[in-house]
Amino acid sequence: MILIAGLGNPGEKYKETWHNLGFKTIDEIAAILKFPDFELQSISDAEISKGKIGSKEVVLVKPQTFMNNSGEAIRKLFKNYKLKASDLIVIHDDIDLPLGKIKIVSDRGAAGHKGVESIINHLGTQKFVRIRMGMQPEKGKPRNAENFVLRKFKKKEVKDIIKKASEAIRDILARGLEKAMNSHNKDCL
Fold this sequence. Notes:
Blueprint: E1 2-6, H1 21-32, E2 39-41, E3 46-53, E4 56-63, H2 70-81, E5 88-98, E6 102-106, H3 114-123, E7 129-136, H4 145-149, H5 155-175, H6 177-184
Parallel strand pairs: 1-4, 1-5, 5-7
Antiparallel strand pairs: 2-3, 3-4, 6-7
Helix pairs in contact: 1-5, 2-3, 5-6
């Protein structure tokens, strides 16, 4: 079983903000692959949808613990489904990458991302795959990143990056991590 977690903040207030790119991508994957509607699993503090991608059983996850505490929900899901770190793919916004770029990484530190840091702390490892979704404006990294990530985006600004990230997920599951990294990361070099 593979757990694919999109990071974000729950509630209408945050729905269309940059920090919710992970949630938006998970919604896109669920829609494209016709996964069932998300249901709140209160035992794990997460909305989940189960299905298959190719021959792999997949649980799509939107933690409802707010971004900075994402690890709480992930740890509970790991315990419930008896998973290991190599069964996890995390999708999240990244202000250090230019808008529209994605980068697949594995076994890397949080690089200042509080949601990823929470997952690393709760699991006790960083040996999982991440899809970093670039959101840095053309004029460079904003002075106050915390305010910027909670700003609303325009749908046309995120349409392509959500598509790229969902394609990267399907590619990882179909062709393997290394081939997916070679294909999708060349744009970031």
